[in-house]
Amino acid sequence: MLVDEDDYLAHYGTLxxxxxxxxxxxxxVSGVVSLERQFLNYLQEGRSKGLTEKQIAEGAxxxxxxxxxxxxxxxNKVKQDNINQAEKLRAKGYSHKAIGEAIGGKNGNPIxxxxxxxxxxxxxxxxxxxxxxTAAMLKTHVDEKGVIDIxxxxxxxxxxxxxxxxxxxxxxxxxxxxxxRVKIKQQGTGKLTDTRVLAKPGITQKEVWMDQTLIKQINxxxxxxxxxxxxxxxxxxxxxKRVAVxxxxxxxxxxxxxxxxxxxxxxxxxxxxxxxxxxxxxxxxRYLKGMAMYSNDLPDGVDLLFHTNKSKAxxxxxxxxxxxxxxxxxxxxxxxxxxxxGAVIKSGGQQxxxxxxxxxKVTSVMNIVNEEGDWxxxxxxxxxxxxxxxxxxxVKSQLDMxxxxxxxxxxxINALTNPTIKKKLLESFASDVDxxxxxxxxxxxxxxxxxxxxxxVKSLKKNEVYAPNYxxxxxxxxxxxxxxxxxxxxxxxxNNKHREAKKLxxxxxxxxxxxxxxxxERLSGADFDGDTVVVIPNNDGxxxxxxxxxxxxxxxxxxxxxxxxxxxxxxxxxQMGQISNLITDMTIQGAPVEELVRxxxxxxxxxxxxxxxxxxxQSAIDNGIRALKQKYQxxxxxxxxxxxxxxxxxxxxxxxxxxxxxxxxxxxxxxGKKMFTLxxxxxxxxxxxxxxxxxxxxxxxxxELISDANTPVERHYADYSNKLKAMANSARKEELSTxxxxxxxxxAKVYAAEVASLSAKLRIAESNAPQERAAxxxxxxxxxxxxxxxxxxxxxxxxxxxxxxLNEARNRMGAGKxxxxxxxxxxxxxxxxxxxxxxxxxxxDNADLDTIKTMATPRxxxxxTPAKLARAQAMMSSGATRAEVAAQLGIPLGTLDEALYx
Length: 902
Known about the structure:
This protein is α+β, with helices and mostly antiparallel strands.
């Protein structure tokens, strides 16, 4: 007898019976499992008629996911019912054969004895009961926590197959619980990550959307035991009596921002670094900001010697020469426990020691922002703001070289034989090239081009630089971002024999150079509190360097544009962007020197306005900035006017999403262009939602953004951008046409150990996903709370706050991407087809893409042998610079550094 559907619903919910193929029951329909049997019979009947599972799903008015979930539930329940019946009959003395006839005989199909034995085997019931126990576990957690994350990676924590987890959640959905899709904002990128959550009855999707902190993890995590939001331990303050200040009159301006540190004193130690960008609390409410470096030439009783460009006449005491700590918004008498310095302290930027009670003790006053070795990994590419100010010949040469590099990479990916790897690399390549077509960065001019932090060496000549990463006597140019033009690019001669420089920076600083303060002034008025430059070898004279402008000599923005009490604050990022764009537009359009001087003088005020409290508004008036904007940008209040400055301008377009495959997307197969569908979503007040993008990203043809002057530099960049966009589209077309190959069972047997190893690595890698989502949610809540406390945050402080919040949230939640390392034998297994395409996609998603590229497109790799490494270390111990060692061994400096420092 069929069970009444309403009775069934009360227990388990309804498995829908709709469509052209109504379910029929041809098997045992006793008990509450009748509908499950009907559902399985319905699937079987459909398949016997030649229907695909997709057609069967459409006939039943179901989605494919519904069919798969219900199939799992139905099979589990039917088997459970069969086991129960077999056990009852066995208890009555039935033989295996008799049990098979009793259960299956009603349809004339006795169950085979081996099947009966498997049902009656010890533990069979418990094994089959995984779905039920998983559902019970989910129910326990969701009842306790309200909303739980059941997205990707959770299956590894609960140790069940993802299909079982989905079916268990679906099972609970029939009991009144809710499954919602939630988009979690990534604090670092601003992108949204889709996940699924399970909510107990009564909690709406809107509530979860509005407050994502409701989402809890199945694995519980303890709180932080009273630590601050950002994981920053209370800084160790230094007694002001141990700090001395060197003012402008006494030479402080020649090393502005440098903090000399007495070596060998534990509580002012820089750890293992010779120099570092630091923040140091002094007394109760002040701090020092600058570059710390060791020196033995300190007055007696002084352990920190701070240099400043401020004059003694401008301060009442040394205390006023220092910065004020950021105070706690809830208690203005105390420093902010989360961010007392208003800067990001790097993870591990405090030296700590374990106490006996398990807490940490801060042992040094140094709070490190960047330390020796951090700058050498910064990007080596050339920004359009820099390159566009060079000759059109160099612009074209660098852009052509950059495009050729991309084309070579595209060709290498196209030549791959493994279609799954090829599809993934094409997808990544297209995304990278799309971005490059907008940001317009060019390849490095020289392989030894790299960032360095600048430090002062007073006795160096104005045309010299201490730079052990380069050969002695070599000519190099220094470029600071942003800069006004070629007149702010000094060309210097490397002097690595300089005694004072060696004494201060050491014989082999990894990413620092020493210069005279006069050189720093030419670098857009740089100081020594952590300012950086790109160093480019220039023996061939490729990079144009012109004499300093007369109109900038002796110009001191800090003395000429001193601020006043109650002066309005400045949005440095916005103002610097505006004046940089103006200078770029003027340079490209050939503005005369006297007009460029006005704009650059104003830029020098703006760049230091916040740091040194300068009156940038008066500077704009004195330098006639409105008139310059009118002449070179069309209006007094206009923005960018050339392609270079317009490219990155923010543009708001109606909110959209990638077009679904069912709608013909997400890529146009004819053109390779991305396809989008408007969401038509609105804000609560009825305003349409918008998406922020870049102006060049939306331009069909980059030439649309060229100025009326139609300059050669703009044309070169427009051609470059258009060619990159076309290449990205070609990559998407190729990716679309690349079909996956079938898994090779024979290869899977040969490489069984490697398949098992890669599967285990994948489980570990994917198990991080729930913690990462939890960290993003926690960081978002922290950022929201901090923003509420300080609604006046500028964009830079907002960025830092997000970064700190996410960094600490990841530490607390144990989130840290465990990238899959693929061994050579495992790569063989991949190439042989031992891994299924779907599994391989997941492996590639969780592996380091650069490593994948290297393995998929192998090139000759220079390797430093143990013998060469020993020789390098011996040469350096004898006083040779790393540049000299690299030249002697015939290897690039980067290869040597990789061998030395890893």
